[in-house]
Structure formats: C-alpha cells, structure tokens
Amino acid sequence: MSTILKSSPISINLMKSRNYKYALLLVAAVSITATGAMSMAYAQSVDDGMDGYVLGTSGIYTGNPNECWFDDGEGGMLPCMVDTGDMAWILTATSLVLFMTPGLAFFYGGLSRSKNAVNTIGMVFIVIGLMSVQWVLWGYTLAFGPVDNDANLFMGALDYVGFNQVSAWAPLGEPGPCVDTWSSAYQMQQFKDADVCSQGWPGTVPHQLFAMFQATFAIITPALIVGGLIDRIKFSALIIFILIWATFVYDPIAHWVWGGGYIGGGSLDLDPDLSPSYALDFAGGTVVHITSGFAALAGAMVLGRRLGYGKVPMEPHNVPMVVLGASILWFGWFGFNAGSEVMVDGITVSAWTVTNTATGMASITWLLMSWAHTGKPSIVGAATGAIAGLVAITPASGWVGPMASIIIGIAAGTVCYGAIALKNARKWDDALDVWGVHGIGGLTGAILTGTLASPHVWDTGDGIGAWTGTPEGMEQQAINIIGALICLSWSFGITIIILKIMDTIWPGGIRVTPKEEEIGIDLAQHGERAYVNE
Fold it and tell me: Is the pTM value of this prediction over 0.85?
C-alpha cells in the first residue's frame, strides 16, 4: 500500500495528461452536436411556424398525420381532447422512472469497492445526461418513428428527429367521438357528443408526454450495463459506448417490440388463424432487462476479469447504500410498470398490485436461498432479490393477476440466484451481477408472461397464456420465447462488436491500465474520492 501511495501523484499526473486529449475529443463532439441542433432550429424560419409547426393554423399544429387533430371549421387545426388526470399520473410516473436511475447509482455505488465508488456512481449519472439528449435528437424517432415501409420494421422513420412534429398538446391516434373511446366506458364524467378524442393508444395524453415517458426507459437501460463494466472501462470510452449502444441496440429493439416493428407488429405471428400475433412485454422485460443484462455480460467478457478477481475480497463497501438504492428502485418501479398503461384504469391498479407482490416474494425467496446456502440471511441478498422480482414481473405486469405474480416472484428469486452461482462457477466477471439479475430475470419474466398471461385481466380478453391449454396460449408462449431470443442475441452480439471495434481504435484500448486499476479509478480517472478522512 505504501508503494502505491508514494508513486500515485506522478502516476495520476501522467493519467491526467493522457486524459486531456479524450476530454478535448468529447468537447469537440458536444460542440458539433450543439452546432447541428442550432442549425436545425435556425432552418425552421418564422414563415414555417418554427420548430416544425404549421403557420396559419392554431399556432400549435404540427402537421403530424399520426397525431390527433381536427378542423375547427374556421381553417384552424385543434388538438383532440386529453385527460388531465391521465396526464398528471404519467407526469408523475415519468418522474418516478427518472428517479430510478439515481437509485440505481446508489445501488451500484454501494455494491462497488470504496476506491471505485465515485466512478461507479458517476458512470450511471452521466448516462442520464447523455440519453436525455440522444433521445430528443434521434433516439425517439428510431424507436417510435412511423412505420412507412418494410425498412421501418427494423427502425422507425426519421420524421421525429429533434422532436420535430412531437406535440405537447395533441395525443397520438385518429380523431373520433369521445363517447366511443375506452376512457368513456369507465370514467365518471360524461363527454359531449361534439367532443373529439383520439381513438388510439396512447390517446389520452399528449404525444410529447408519451415520448418523454419512454425517454426514462431509454435512460435507465444503458445505465444498467454499467454494473458489468465497473473497475475496468475508461470513463471516456463509456460515454461513446453508451451513445453507440443506445443507437444500434436499444432504439431498434424498442422499435421491434413497442414501436410497430418485427416483434410487436405481427411479423412473428405463427398462425394467422389464432389471435396472438405479437410478443407480450408490458413494461420492458425484453426491451430493458434482457438487452442490458446480456450486454453487460458481453462487456464483461470483452474487458476481461478485474485484477485480483477470485483472489482478493471484492465485497460491497456500503450495505446501507445498497438498501437505499434498492428501495428507491422499488418505489420508482411503480411508475415503470403501472405507468406503462399510459392512462389510469383497472390495468394500472393491477400492474401496481402485482409489481409489489412479486417483488416482496422474490426478496423473501432470495433471502431464504442465501440463508440456506451460506448459513446467514444476507441483507444485500434480500435487496438483490427484490430487484430480481421487479425485473421478472415487468413484462407480465399488465397481463397477470396476484397469484401468478407470486409464482413469478418465487421463480425470480430462485432462477436468478442460480444464474449468479453459475456465473461465479464460470468465472465470468460481471461485477454487479447485471446478467444474473436483469438478463436472466428478464428472460424468466418474458417466458412466464407467455405462460401465465390471463385473458381475465383485460376485459377485452387480451393476453392468453399457455396455462389455458389452448392453441392460442401455446402460440403466445412460442412468440414470447422467440421474441426474447431475438433480442437477446442481437444485444449480446452487437455489444461485442461495438466494444471490440472501440478497443481496437481507442488510444490505449478501452480498459484502464493495471496501475490505474490498482490505485482505484476514482483517483485515476476523476481525481476524486468517495471518502476523505483527513
């Protein structure tokens, strides 16, 4: 230890000088992005109404044919009615899901070693900034842009670049009588016959609110990958990796599953004569957790094991921080799952109920598993089990009832615990078990959604699982498995390709030097420490 401390000032100065060029490259990249954004804004002249709006109408009309607008009879276009109660809930849910990422930072920070805690928390935190910008500039349009041709089954059209034509007033969907909508069937207030509402989904909140709700999912997904890369990856390399990965992995998969692409648009329909035509993923078991979990495993394999792995202690340095982070995630997850209905109805209530139930069951299951395995009840294990339960219930939260959620909770606690034991036996250095908890937890949830989905949760009879013993249920099970495997393979394979290419062209590679790793990445990469005693 004394040798390290004596040599560290010189080493750190050398590291700083080497990192200056990385910082300059990042500054240049930010400047180019800002210049492009300003150029695009400047190109929208006053004659065009600015920011993509159409001059000479209501002043807020975007001209987006996928949004709900109607002619007011005087040459103006007005937005269809929205539900202020639904808007209030989705604004809250969006904030809850955004708050999950700082919670993840605490969770990961507590699990990490003290000499790398600042770096771990910082890597998660910077993803919020990166993805907030990426999503508005091009991420949203790739994930949820219109499907105009067969090529758009892979990625959305570029209509929404820079949030062009993404209205803060009008919802998505076709205009029609409010009395014919889903909301009219259960709300206490009565609509007037002349009122115009969206006939589609999500039709009760503005397009831009839906887009920003989805932004919070795009933020937390790459942040989850950080847990598999800590203690090894350069901070500068992580920034570029996140932007590339989000563009070529997250955005396409979100489009395939949720944006009308291959998996959610009917391309996986194995039997057109049966009702199931798409994979069920209510809130992101496939889109968020399978993709991030298998990407983290790919990253850990490309980077290699940490120095001293399996030889020196690498236990969590701050258990209270772990529990705090897990608690924030549990709290925020109600926005994640219950918010994914994008309105307030019985499905919203059901999703909230099963999310909490499965999480509690998984936490207890993991605690008992670790108690039986090690002889001691692990609090870190209980917190990790809760996260596994949240992950597994996510795809099923809109399709199963309370009893099925208990089954999913038990499965999450046992399967994910076993996956981590397998990972340790194979010596895969996924440092914070992202693959075991999110990758395998998401896969477990995706499969069980196909198994346990109940047509009795929706009054439309939507969601027929294999437990019904019907041909429709068997097809739904198969579609869910196929969809999950497609996303799993794409995420794992493309992540390896991205990191291999980056490691080849990045000055000195994407991994920190052994000296930096020995000193600690907090000091080596940031010149900061989590705990200062003097």
Answer: yes
